[in-house]
Design goal:
This protein is mostly helical. The chain is 61% helix and 0% strand. The protein contains eleven helices and no strands. Helix 8 packs across helix 11 and helix 10 crosses helix 11. The protein starts with 21 loop residues before the first helix and ends with a helix.
């Protein structure tokens, strides 16, 4: 089988990695499924791999390894070869480039973002990032302002700020990661608060507040002395001039009555 060769310089193609596969695609479209068609398909894919690698290189330094990017680009190339229809009269490259680029962008969107970020915000992030790089070449010594990026990208300042916030959402820090400038290994997890156990009693206190207010004054006083002043029953009895047994009965009766009323309210 004749091997596919790259275009010669006489063809004057803008990319050196664009082989002449027009005839191969026409033969591929007319061949039935089988080993010969699979072999020709593989030759076409192999011939266009340099272009896929070139497209993958455009996305370097974005947090993904070069090898993984090349694999994703190769997957996009295979999809482009399988879906290309030479009868439409378009050059394969014009069809393959957006297909491969789209596959790489989907990879970043679906697999690289630690946090879920809406598609529109992801696009804003990319535009803001590129604009920041471009402007940094013209205003050395400082970072471009929000207003300068907005003017450069024709975005609103609000959209620029959303894009800048998304720049920090691509990856997440571990809670065990040591904070910059910290001492003694102080981590992000150490800076997080914890649930206040007293919050569990808020609902209970609010539920009984009205019922406690409706109790007779002496009974309210006894409950306050017992549960808020942490006084013993014997001391309460001494303060009020009654027996300790009487104090015990009053506390039990009041608590039982309030409990029944609150449960009835919640039912």
């Amino acid at each position: 089988m004749r091997r596919i060769m790259p275009r010669t310089s006489a063809k004057r193609h803008p990319h050196h990695d664009a082989p002449d596969t027009a005839e191969a695609f026409r033969r591929l479209a007319s061949m039935p499924d089988g080993p010969q068609r699979d072999a020709l398909r593989d030759e076409i894919v192999e011939a266009w791999l340099p272009m896929a690698d070139r497209l993958a290189g455009r996305f370097r330094s974005r947090g993904e390894s070069a090898e993984d990017l090349r694999q994703v680009a190769a997957l996009g190339l295979v999809k482009a070869v399988d879906r290309f229809d030479p009868e439409r009269g378009h050059a394969f490259e014009s069809y393959a480039v957006p297909t491969i680029t789209g596959e790489i962008k989907r990879h970043f969107r679906d697999h690289m973002w630690t946090l879920h970020v809406p598609r529109r915000v992801q696009d804003l992030r990319n535009r803001v990032r590129v604009a920041g790089q471009d402007l940094s070449q013209t205003i050395p010594g400082r970072r471009p302002t929000v207003a300068e990026i907005a003017e450069h990208t024709n975005l609103s300042e609000e959209d620029v700020r959303a894009g800048q916030e998304a720049l920090e959402s691509f990856t997440a820090l571990s809670l065990d990661a040591e904070l910059s400038g910290s001492e003694d290994g102080y981590s992000l997890g150490d800076a997080l608060g914890s649930a206040d156990p007293a919050l569990d009693t808020v609902v209970d206190r609010e539920s009984v507040k009205a019922r406690l207010a409706a109790l007779p004054e002496r009974e309210r006083t006894i409950l306050y002395m017992r549960f808020f002043d942490d006084m013993t029953q014997s001391r309460i009895a001494e303060e009020l001039g009654i027996s300790q047994m009487h104090v015990s009965r009053l506390i039990s009766r009041c608590c039982g009555r309030v409990r029944e009323q609150v449960m009835r309210d919640l039912a």
